[in-house]
Amino acid sequence: MTDTAKPLALVTGVGPGTGAAVVRRFAEGGYRVAMLERDAARLTALEQEIADTIAVPCDVSDPAALGRAVADVGFPRVVVHNAVGGAFGTFMNIAPETLRKNFDINTMALFHLARLTSPAMIEAGEGALIVTGNTSAHRGKAAFAGFAPTKAAQRILAESLARDLGPKGVHVAYLVIDAAIDVPWQRELQPDKPDDFFISPTSIAAEVFHLAHQPRDAWSFLAEVRPFHEPW
Q1: Is residue 174 a contact partner of residue 133, using CB atoms and an 8 Å limit?
Q2: Which residues span the domain enclosing 43?
Q3: Residue 222's CB: how many other CB atoms inside 10 A?
């Protein structure tokens, strides 16, 4: 059972790295947390592990499923859009359907989430919508043709949302994660890198929580996190 007296946070893309860390941080910070992810088994395990969490299996690229998920859990005080669709390859290697699917996850899901959740935030006079992004939102490398265009669109959509919703009391922020996240598959790809090459999901989650709770006279829109020695 979750404590319904607590404010609700909704987190998409609750994988074993950043998503799970964000859920833990908000639960520790006094929230009930609705967890959206396609992997029902993972969500069930997290629901049993972390108090005041709600498992909501959902494909965020499906607008109808996303609408049902929000209706089931109620209207959140904070939304964190962490779900990500990615693919590596040049424009000649990537199937058009892959780019379209990634756009649905990264950009259209944000569009629908904002439409579903921001009216209640506006009515309440408070709320936060935090989007996790990466450096692909700023540049299009050759092998990122199936991914970077959708993250750039996501960043611009978030900026449009921020300009619209900010004066209405709703804080929108975009967090650029300029780093390799410390998850097993990244370690396997780069086994010779030292520990401080990677960014911890816990550190990312702390910044997400901070952005969601900035004072109203000092809101950030574009924020960045990277390891201290990362070239940029």
Answers
A1: yes
A2: 8-225
A3: 15
**Cα separation, 8 vs 74, whole angstroms:** 8
Decide which of 21 and 2 is more confident: 21
Other C-beta atoms within 10 Å of 69: how many?
Answer: 22
pTM of the model: 0.94
Question: Please, are residues 142 and 92 in contact by the beta-carbon 8 Å criterion?
Answer: no
SS3 label, residue 13: coil
Pairing state between β 53-57 and 198-199? unpaired
- Alpha-carbon distance of 113 to 52, in angstroms, equals 22
Which is nearest to 60 in space by CA: 50, 47, 73, 70? 70
Radius of gyration of the chain (CA): 17
| pLDDT, tens digit, 9 for 90 and up, residues 102-136 | 999 999 999 999 999 999 999 999 999 999 998 88
CA 164, CA 171: separation in Å to the nearest integer?
Answer: 10
CATH number at residue 141: 3.40.50.720
pLDDT on residue 1: 64
Structure tokens at 232: 């940029």
